[in-house]
Design brief:
Residues 1045-1058, 1097-1107 have a biased composition (Basic and acidic residues). The chain is mainly α. The longest helix is centred in the first third of the chain and has 42 residues, at 162-203.
């Protein structure tokens, strides 16, 4: 045992000795780098060791820390010697280290961003901070240390490779932060102590010429010089705010924000604040958010209003624009900043109104933040907001807005702010009963009243996903709200309903209120008579009104009162049952008088409609038995009634209630199937010959039929429920959809198109109908607004899941159908003149819709297939070959020239992701078809007519030869560039490797471009590689300077002068451009890892926005 123990110790000693020898063999820089990578390394020890080495040999220590910085950039091969460091300048040496081979690799996994290097990044930052903090004045102000470190970090910041720029930027930010700490905690503290001593000496009567005063003044001057030296170093180190990599720009903006807070006497200056202002227009949302947070911290200090006057006036418009930013988080931060700005500078009325619109935004975060602005700028100025005046001001605010559903959005946004008048029920009732209100104000008052009631009950007040709804109150608070509300409305609600019994818009709001009352309060306060009076008022309104909203609201309320468990449930049930019997009796009376000459048949239609709305809310088949009579009316007496849509609706509702019973008791299945099939035949019959309203109702019900009763059921006793969609029915539905949508387009009825498309997409997406009907829907992809587009996108997604191999067929059919429509429209356009330019312009206007559709379909192709797969490649090959056959078909009278635009403006956009082999096959097919149709070559076609075809041919050939803009291989991992990009960038990098890349010179020029992509109406789009940033300043920038060969000089001694010149040139507050890469940044490794297929997608999106 003892020998084994000795042997084990001996092995450990040997291993430790070998490890020590390995450390000795490593260079000091490698040792420092690997030490920082290890967890638990003492940074103080490493810094003390380096400072000790610096005091012995400052050149060798400086070379060590530079080599450490190179290692931290992930460059294993590059390392400097002391001789190289003495002979050459930083930029020249760095150009030798960053070889073309290193650039070619495009290494992305450098230490500070590597997943395994998260600890290293923090250690790296602490190291640079400590090296400045622990340096004595003898090192810090020796005129060598700071100059050397600054020049090398600056050179790294201008490097070609992203790892060097990113690592150097991080080091620079930490060095700057440490220098600020030295100024604040050491220099400024010592200067303050000297000032106190000088003041003391002066009070003692000492003259300025005394030795003590001279010594004190000399020390203070030296400290001031040291402070100025550090400030000059800080100016040199702040770079990267315009780098092409957003992470680097984020680092710079965030650091500058910290410095402004910690050292305002130097950084709170317009010359530096302009960088924050420019960052407000950065194309990356993260940078914009960080810039806004910096501004928010500044605006939170009203005492800085005078200091920030120039900044506020310069960037005020930009901040207001950002409220409508395409990124929601940016919009939220912008609203916070603008709200704070109003405390420092009053906004114009126009700007205030623009911001008010944000309270009706689709996104809850935006609305909630906008509500704070509205409260500050509107309601707080009124004064008393607890009573009727506060409610009147809210009504007035809503009445001024033109946006729909304003009360819903405003109440939802203001509710979390605990504004007292929103829960003052007595005041609301008094205002609502006021005769001085206009008709529109009464409607708004009623809607606000009901919205507040719903919020008090924790109910949503607008249709939206739960994630986007504001949080409801706690249960205890909700119960208290309901009880307080009920006590107020027990007496006043029947009076309100009676008072507005003739005002349908107000009444439709009031009749839903009983659903949100605490019904047990009626019993505890012994107000059963009031409850009975309320029920009678509701039933009376139901039997005297025909408005859909009023009838639907009352029906839902009566069913709720009858089904909810409470002590007064029985009288509510009795009232509901009696109402159903009265409606049934009214129908029978009117039905018997149907054939009388003097009978007003609209009474029968109204009776059916009232039954329909009540029947949809509750199964009343035991009290209402009118199915047979309705079928008789539809079948034999349809000529006597103009509108049968409500009759079909009642039959459909009755069938759905019967379906629920059949699921519980299958014994009635056979009878149900017979009844359903008979109803299906009646629906199909009236789909073709009925009135417009009847046809629309039949179409909607048939769509639901096909979804409810799919083609295939599992083999159970319910399999008889299958409803076969015959080809004739499918054809008739398709024809009706196309015909009706065309008519709605002429009348600009977008709401009707939306409802019709939503209904038609349901059976198509579920597979109840064949894909032959899909093109009739897809042709309307981008014509009728965002909601229709979303519905069609969901259809495409479902079809891809169920039938991916056949996707190309209906995509091609859609393009063909749209192209044929376009050609027909061109031929029928009588305004097309004979002049060539005018004719071309008219034709292009007609072609816009086709091009936009092709681009949108291509975009969905890209977005749904992130990686190229076999089904995608085969489908695209089939699509292109079939499209070529369509263009060159040999039918008599067919002219291929008519289809050149079909290929060049449509199919080309979809072929971009084709693989090389598929493109080669398509090219061979194209050449064969061309040779067969044009034996003498395409040249026989007139000049100008063949341009789209030649473009298409060249595109396919390009892919076939391997120069595809979208290679078929899967997208490479981040940081790996495609072969095409490597080849293209290699020559540029070699040419620029020895040149200085100056970040700032290019900023002097550059045209301003503005482009907006609305979210809702005015939202500004900032997509990283697609939409350019927006310049909010009114001044024009100077035209772009042309740079000659001698403009890019090697960085040397004259570089300091260049920096000084640039500082002067940046006195004015300008705004940089990020949308286009400056000439000085070309060839840099952006390291975004983007392949050329992303370029295609961006191009398609850009074309869609222009369209």
């Amino acid at each position: 045992m003892a020998k084994k123990k000795v042997q084990a110790v001996t092995e450990e000693d040997i291993a430790e000795g070998e490890e020590q020898q390995e450390v000795v063999r490593k260079s000091p820089a490698t040792h420092l780098f690997e030490a920082l990578k290890k967890k638990g390394t003492s940074i103080n020890t490493l810094v003390d060791e380096w400072i000790k080495n610096y005091t012995k040999d400052r050149k060798e220590a400086t070379v060590q820390i530079i080599n450490f910085l190179i290692k931290a950039c992930g460059c294993e091969t590059g390392e400097l010697t002391v001789d190289e460091y003495e002979e050459d300048e930083a930029q020249e040496l760095l150009n030798g280290i960053i070889t073309p081979e290193y650039l070619k690799e495009g290494e992305m996994n450098y230490p500070i961003v590597a997943r395994k290097g998260t600890n290293f990044a923090s250690q790296f930052a602490k190291f640079w901070n400590q090296i400045i903090s622990k340096s004595t004045n003898k090192i810090l102000f020796d005129g060598y240390f700071l100059d050397s470190i600054s020049s090398w970090i600056s050179a790294f910041s201008n490097a070609l490779a992203r790892p060097f720029r990113h690592t150097a930027t991080m080091a620079a930010m930490e060095v700057n932060s440490a220098l600020i700490k030295v100024i604040n905690e050491r220099i400024n503290k010592d200067i303050s102590a000297l000032d106190r001593s000088i003041s003391t000496e002066r009070r003692k009567g000492a003259s300025s010429g005394s030795q003590k005063m001279k010594d004190l003044t000399k020390k203070k001057n030296r400290l001031e010089q040291n402070k100025q030296q550090l400030q000059e170093a800080m100016n040199v180190l702040y770079k990267g705010y315009r780098d092409t990599v957003p992470e680097i720009r984020c680092t710079c903006v965030e650091a500058l924000g910290r410095w402004i807070n910690s050292y305002p006497e130097f950084y709170l200056d317009d010359k530096l604040l302009k960088y924050i202002g420019w960052a407000l227009s950065d194309k990356d949302a993260r940078v914009r958010i960080l810039a806004l947070k910096v501004v928010e911290r500044l605006y939170a200090q009203p005492e800085l209003a005078d200091t920030l006057e120039i900044f506020i006036s310069t960037f005020e418009n930009r901040l207001i624009q950002m409220v409508a930013d395409n990124e929601i988080d940016v919009g939220v931060e912008a609203l916070k900043v603008v709200t704070l700005q109003t405390k420092m500078k009053e906004l114009s009325e126009e700007d205030i109104q623009r911001i008010y619109q944000a309270i009706t935004d689709d996104h809850t975060k935006i609305r909630l933040e906008a509500a704070k602005f509205v409260k500050l700028c509107y309601f707080d100025k009124i004064g008393d907001t607890t009573g009727e005046e506060g409610i009147r001001s809210l009504i007035s605010f809503v009445d001024k807005s033109l946006a729909p559903d304003v009360p819903n959005y405003i109440v939802d946004a203001l509710w979390p702010l605990d504004i007292p008048h929103l829960k003052n029920w007595n005041a609301m009732v008094n205002v609502l009963m006021d005769d001085e209100l206009s008709a529109s104000e009464q409607v708004h008052a009623a809607r606000i009243f009901v919205c507040c009631i719903k919020k008090a009950n924790g109910a949503p007040i607008y249709p939206a996903p739960k994630a986007e709804q504001s949080k409801p109150d706690k249960k205890e608070k909700i119960e208290k709200n309901k009880n307080d509300l009920t006590r107020v409305l027990i007496k006043q609600l029947p009076e309100l309903i009676n008072n507005f019994s003739e005002e349908e818009q107000v009444l439709s709001e009031l009749v839903v209120i009983p659903q949100y009352l605490a019904l047990d309060v009626y019993s505890t306060q012994r107000d059963k008579e009031k409850f009975s009076a309320l029920l009678k008022k509701l039933t009376k309104c139901y039997t005297s009104h025909t408005n859909e909203e009023v009838l639907t609201g009352i029906a839902n309320t009566l069913v709720y009162l009858a089904d909810t468990e409470h002590e007064l449930k029985t009288p509510a049930e009795e009232i509901l049952l009696q109402l159903a019997m009265d409606l049934n009796k009214s129908f029978e009376t009117n039905y018997k008088s149907l054939e009388d000459k003097d009978f007003d048949r609209t009474n029968l239609v109204v009776a059916i409609e009232r039954i329909d709305y009540l029947y949809k809310c509750k199964d009343l088949s035991d009290s209402i038995g009118i199915d047979e009579s309705l079928i008789e009316i539809i079948g034999d007496k349809e000529s006597l009634i103009e509108d049968l849509s409500s009759a079909f609706s009642v039959l459909n509702t009755s069938m759905l209630w019967s379906l629920l019973k059949v699921h519980k008791d299958p014994s009635g299945l056979e009878l149900f199937v017979r009844t359903r099939d008979h109803l299906g035949r009646l629906l199909q019959q009236h789909l073709s010959v009925g009135t417009p309203s009847v046809r629309e109702r039949c179409f909607t019900i048939l769509c639901d039929f096909l979804v409810l009763f799919p083609r295939k059921f599992e083999k159970t006793e319910m399999s008889d429920l299958e409803f076969q969609c015959k080809s004739s029915l499918e054809r008739e539905m398709r024809e009706y959809y196309v015909e009706t949508v065309a008519a709605m387009e002429e009348s600009e009825d977008r709401e009707g198109i939306t409802k019709l498309t939503e209904a038609y997409v349901r059976p198509l997406a579920s597979g109840a109908m064949s894909t032959e009907s899909v093109p009739s829907v897809l042709t309307h992809f981008c014509q009728h607004g965002k909601y229709v587009e979303t519905v069609i996108k969901s259809l495409l997604s479902k079809l891809r899941e169920s039938n991916a191999d056949a996707e190309w067929k209906f995509v091609l059919a859609t393009l063909t159908e749209k192209y044929e429509e376009t050609l027909k429209a061109i031929e029928e356009d009588e305004d097309i003149g004979e002049e060539e330019e005018e004719k071309r312009e008219k034709v292009q206007n007609h072609m816009k819709g086709f091009k936009e559709l092709a681009a949108r379909l291509a975009l969905t192709y890209h977005s749904n297939f992130g990686k190229a797969d076999r089904s995608l490649t085969d489908g695209l090959r089939s699509l292109v070959i079939r499209a070529i056959d369509t263009a060159f078909k040999e039918d008599e009278g067919h002219d291929p020239k008519r289809y050149f635009s079909f290929l060049g403006d449509g199919v080309l956009r979809l072929s971009s992701r084709m693989g090389q082999s598929a493109a080669s096959e398509s090219l061979r097919h194209l050449e064969e078809a061309e040779k067969k149709r044009y034996p003498d070559g395409i040249e026989e076609v007139e000049e100008g007519e063949d341009e789209p075809y030649c473009r298409f041919r060249a595109h396919i050939k390009k892919i076939a030869l391997g120069a595809s803009a979208a290679p078929s291989s899967p997208k490479k991992k981040a940081g790996k560039k495609t072969a095409g990009k490597k080849t293209a960038g290699k020559t540029k990098r070699k040419a620029k490797a020895a040149k200085v890349l100056d970040f700032e010179e290019e900023e002097e020029g550059g045209e301003k471009e503005k482009r907006q992509s609305p979210r809702k109406k005015s939202r500004v789009s900032y997509k990283d590689d697609e939409v350019e940033s927006i310049d909010s300043s009114e001044e024009e920038e100077a035209p772009k300077k042309k740079r000659g060969k001698g403009d890019e000089k090697k960085r040397g001694k004259g570089d300091e002068k260049k920096r000084g010149k640039k500082t002067k040139e940046h006195q004015s507050l300008k705004k940089p451009r990020y949308s286009k890469k400056p000439a000085s940044l070309k060839g840099r490794d952006d390291s975004d890892g983007e392949s050329d297929e992303d370029e295609d997608v961006r191009q398609l999106r850009s074309e869609l926005k222009r369209g």
